[in-house]
Design brief:
By secondary structure, the chain is of the alpha/beta class. It has two domains: 168 residues, no CATH class; 44 residues, no CATH class. The protein is built from nine helices and five strands. Strands 3-2-1-4-5 form a five-stranded mixed beta sheet. It is globular. It starts with a helix and ends in a 22-residue tail after the last helix.
């Protein structure tokens, strides 16, 4: 696919950063022979967006939600990784090269949903019974206390995972229209599209205009200058 080398270069640039966000969203994939679809996943990885470089988001299509897919994508990468509490990421944090950052928005959401559902403010309860909604929300937060608090120890770590969740939102809306991928191969071939258009949007470019201009240039463009076509802010294309 013509766009694959561009997406590959964005992935390379992303993995040079020391702080990343990660999340995943389900998509439907045609199940051959059954006339039905099965669940596949678009894994999303994003830089922290704190002015340390042009923002980049990369989507990686995989047939499952198994944590090994994140391990393969991040193989050899060292840094801080912002994630929710999905168990698939936990193996990444067993060594000393990848440090977990907990999403404060996820922790806060549990209390917010509880207050909305019960109408009782958490602060008004002297004790929280085991097994109740308040206790579960507190247990979630306390269990991840170290990961949730790491952002406070420095000025460059994010407090939550909202950035990559926002990047996933257009995909979540779009899949209601394109419905499913025809195969795992088709899904992998399509993943560069949200990668490139999402990165163009993050860099303040018109995604459609960038895509049209790039597709017109690609056939005669030298491979040695591929970075000049990346959907990054002017002056940020070159290494």
């Amino acid at each position: 696919m013509a766009l694959q080398p561009l997406a590959g270069r964005l992935a390379w640039r992303l993995l040079q950063e020391g702080v990343l966000h990660a999340d995943e969203t389900p998509v439907q994939q045609l199940d051959p022979g059954g006339g039905k679809t099965k669940k596949a996943y678009l894994w999303a990885y994003r830089g922290n967006g704190l002015g340390l470089g042009p923002p980049v988001v990369v989507f990686d299509y995989q047939a499952s939600r198994e944590g090994r897919h994140a391990a393969v994508f991040l193989d050899g990468w060292h840094g801080h990784l912002m994630v929710d509490d999905y168990a698939g990421y936990k193996a990444l944090f067993h060594g000393k090269t990848v440090v977990e950052l907990g999403c404060m928005a996820h922790a806060r959401r549990k209390f917010f949903d509880l207050a909305k559902a019960s109408g009782s403010p958490v602060a008004a309860r002297a004790q929280a019974p085991d097994g109740g909604g308040t206790a579960k929300a507190m247990d979630y937060t306390l269990k991840r206390r170290d990961a949730l608090a790491r952002y406070a120890g420095t000025g460059h770590l994010p407090i939550d995972n909202n950035a990559v969740e926002n990047d996933i939102r257009p995909v979540a809306v779009g899949k209601k229209n394109w419905l499913f991928a025809g195969s795992e191969r088709a899904g992998k071939r399509a993943a560069p599209i949200p990668t490139l258009l999402g990165t163009a949007r993050l860099n303040g470019l018109d995604p459609a205009a960038w895509l049209k201009d790039t597709l017109e240039k690609l056939p005669a463009w030298p491979a040695s200058r591929i970075d000049e076509l990346l959907p990054l802010r002017r002056g940020q294309q070159a290494d």
